[in-house]
Amino acid sequence: MSYQQFAYYYDQLMEDAPYNQWISFFEQAVQSYGSKVSNVLDLGCGTGSLSIRLSKQGYDVTGVDLSDDMLAIAKEKSIQQKVPVQYFQQDMTQLEGLQEFDAAVIFCDSLNYILTEDKVLAAFQSVYQHLKEDGLFLFDVHSLYKIHNIFMGSTFGSNEEQLSFIWQCFEGEEPDSIEHELSFFVQENENRYIRFDEVHIQRTFPTEVYKTMLESTGFQILAVSGDFTQDSIQPEAERIFFICKK
User: Fold this and answer.
1) What is the CA 225 to chain-centroid distance, rounded?
2) Alpha helices of the chain — where are they, by DSSP H?
3) What CA–CA distance (Å, rounded) separates 169 from 178?
4) Burial letters for 58-95: b for 16+ Cβ neighbours within 10 Å, e otherwise?
5) Count of Cβ atoms closer than 10 Å to residue 153 Cβ
6) What is the pLDDT of residues 52-94, one digit of tens each?
7) Where are the transmembrane segments (predicted)?
8) For the chain, does the N or the C end have fewer beta carbons within 10 angstroms?
9) How far apart are CA 144 and CA 237, in angstroms?
10) How many other CB atoms sit within 10 Å of the CB of residue 105?
11) What is the pTM of this model?
12) Which of 23, 68, 22, 64 is nearest to 41 (CA)?
């Protein structure tokens, strides 16, 4: 799945995303379960917002994404902020040629863009192969509750002067999947807006399915929780977090 034009407005649309909560969750997990973590693999890094924050926290960060456009923006941001992040264009289900890492993350529901169990399992196996012994693996996914009770059949929108959007959510073809139909209106000048449209498809799986795949890969599951906590999953949790160790 390519982000196309969406990449160039992603940061503006995501300016309220809880990036600092992802960083805090990661650092709390490292303190609770990790030994020394010096280098981190950020998969599905997008425009580098988390990679850059991790680097500023003192980690040696490598960012990986499938989108050329996203990575171009990430590289530019890293240069502007004088942050030494390495970026590679790769598919997280087929990582190759990278070093081994103390920790790997797939945050911001990036894993939900992988639509089949076989491919999710391949991603887990790929991560496992690129972790050091006792390395940590953290990721989050949309909950079934969020897919069916928040996304399904909903319409979201924003009416800002320079960038407006209509975001409609429809049931996807696969079980527990959602199709996001996005229409953007970008101001070109005082009298003209440019429209572009994209479709993004995401799918989640029951928690037990993720657990089975992780364990079959060889991971030890340390914690499964909801919504940036390390507590038990509440019925209306929107994000499910996994903390695993090789």
Assistant:
1) 17
2) 10-13, 19-33, 49-56, 68-80, 117-129, 144-145, 207-217
3) 6
4) ebbbbbbbbbebbbebbbebbeeeebebebeebbbbeb
5) 12
6) 999 999 999 999 999 998 999 999 999 999 999 999 999 999 9
7) none
8) N
9) 9
10) 28
11) 0.93
12) 64
Angle at 204 between CA 200 and CA 209, to 5 degrees: 155
Give the residues of the chain that fall short of pLDDT 70: 1-8, 11
Q: How far is CA 91 from CA 42, 120, 126, 184, 222, in A?
A: 12, 12, 10, 27, 26
Sheet containing strand 101-106, strands side by side = 86-89, 60-65, 39-43, 101-106, 131-142, 239-245, 220-226
**pLDDT for position 2:** 42
Residues in a beta bridge with 133: none
**71 within 8 A of 79, measured Cβ to Cβ:** no
Residue recorded with tokens 């994000």: 239
Which domains does the chain possess? 4-142+205-245 (3.40.50.150), 146-202 (2.20.25.110)
